[in-house]
Design brief:
Strand content: 25-35%
Number of helices: 8
Largest sheet: 9 strands, mixed
Radius of gyration: 19 Å
Distance between the termini: 50 Å
Number of domains: 2
């Protein structure tokens, strides 16, 4: 029999043996509640299923997740919800025999600064921490976020609102919590995420909106020099929507009408 303790006290539940906690062996998605409804909720559910499949987490309890989600958000008008799926809870060790997936749902209040930075834009820095390349884990939102944690803790001041992360091959991949887009000659350019990074729900929505607006989108390798040569840049995720970038370290951008157009189109959905 194994025992687990927190702050010296015995834990009798299976929380301390959850594989997402012990090994990062799980996936999650974060979404916005607005007017009592989850935005792009089906896309988030499908992303959970896809990411579970990629990690070979069998039979995640999607119907139970949906029912619990609907019950939990009944009294939430606006806020943020995170849904996590763990491979299982059980005894220690990397091998997991006959796993039964479990899920967690947590809620947070809506941050007041979200709309502020949508309008004013943000300042960004390059992070020293690199993203590793791993085609098996690339694209999915797994529970091991140590690279992002280390990167985000490189600064504590309010001078920067986000940090950009490169991979070990010097390619610019994403922000610590966001996906990246460049604007160049009225074309959108976003990093290729086949070896690292997270394929965010909002990233896909921006690509869909751009195509609907007849804006060309290119998915390719991006280097620091490409950012310096861009007309504009912005970051995006399901919570922040679109945040224009005013400055990356000492490199400044001017306001760009294409970003404003994308924000206006996105506002129809959020």
């Amino acid at each position: 029999m194994s025992n687990s303790y927190r702050n010296g006290e015995l834990i009798t539940s299976d929380v301390a043996t959850d594989r997402a906690l012990l090994y990062g062996d799980g996936v999650f998605t974060t979404l916005v509640i607005k007017d009592g409804k989850g935005l792009f909720i089906e896309e988030h559910f499908q992303r959970l299923l896809k990411d579970c499949h990629q990690l070979k987490i069998n039979n995640p309890p999607l119907n139970d997740i949906k029912n619990s989600f609907a019950s939990i958000i009944k009294n939430i008008n606006q806020g943020i919800v995170r849904i996590s799926v763990s491979r299982s809870s059980g005894e220690r060790g990397y091998l997991c025999v006959n796993p039964i997936p479990v899920f967690w749902i947590s809620t947070s209040q809506w941050p007041a600064h979200i709309e502020t930075f949508r309008a004013s834009g943000i300042n960004v820095r390059y992070c020293q921490q690199r993203l590793s390349q791993n085609s098996t884990l690339a694209g999915i939102k797994h529970c091991n976020r140590l690279e992002q944690v280390l990167a985000r803790n490189e600064w504590q001041s309010d001078d920067y609102q986000e940090g950009l992360m490169l991979d070990t091959a010097d390619q610019v991949i994403e922000g610590t919590m966001s996906n990246l887009f460049l604007v160049k000659n009225n074309q959108l350019i976003t990093p290729n995420l086949t070896l690292s990074g997270v394929e965010g729900i909002m990233r896909q929505k921006i690509i869909e909106i751009a195509k609907f607006e007849n804006i060309d989108v290119k998915v390719t390798t991006i280097l620091v020099d490409d950012l310096n040569a861009a007309d504009a840049a912005f970051v995006t995720n399901s919570v922040i929507g679109i945040w224009p970038i005013n400055r990356i370290d000492n490199h400044c951008f001017v306001q760009n009408p294409l970003i404003k157009k994308l924000q206006q189109s996105l506002n129809k959905f959020i």
